[in-house]
Write a structure and sequence with these properties.
The protein has about 110 residues and is an alpha+beta fold. The protein is about 25% helix and about 25% strand. It has helices at about 10, 35-50, 75-85; strands at about 25-30, 55-60, 65-70, 90-100.
Length: about 110
């Protein structure tokens, strides 16, 4: 049906992660072993199928990718990092950062 104006989050199927028991929001920066097209494509395809990854950006600078990962707790994040990200053959290393407090989050743009 028709989406009421201003109700785009509901239309996109967005839910409050905390309401789903996802209390940890992590930023994971990833550095690749090799920067050839095949390794990057394989990693990006892999990431597309990871439900806990809510955002993936290809970056300029020191890190190749920045991931936002939303999980239940630190144990779940450690498992995700060790068993999925760091075990991927194209990944050399990573660095993790954790939100202390979300100050602002929006997807709305001024028109």
């Amino acid at each position: 049906g028709r989406v009421p104006p201003g109700d785009t989050e509901a239309a996109a199927g967005k839910a409050d992660p905390r309401a789903l028991g996802k209390n940890l929001d992590a930023i994971c920066q990833v550095r690749m072993k090799v920067h050839d097209r095949e390794n990057r494509a394989a990693f990006e395809k892999f990431i597309e199928h990871q439900e806990d990854v809510t955002e993936c950006l290809s970056m300029s600078g020191e890190w190749d990718y920045q991931l936002r990962i939303t999980v239940k707790d630190m144990a779940e994040y450690e498992d995700f990092l060790m068993r999925r990200i760091l075990s991927h053959p194209a990944v050399a290393t990573s660095a993790s950062h954790f939100d202390l407090k979300r100050i602002k989050y929006t997807t709305a743009l001024s028109v």
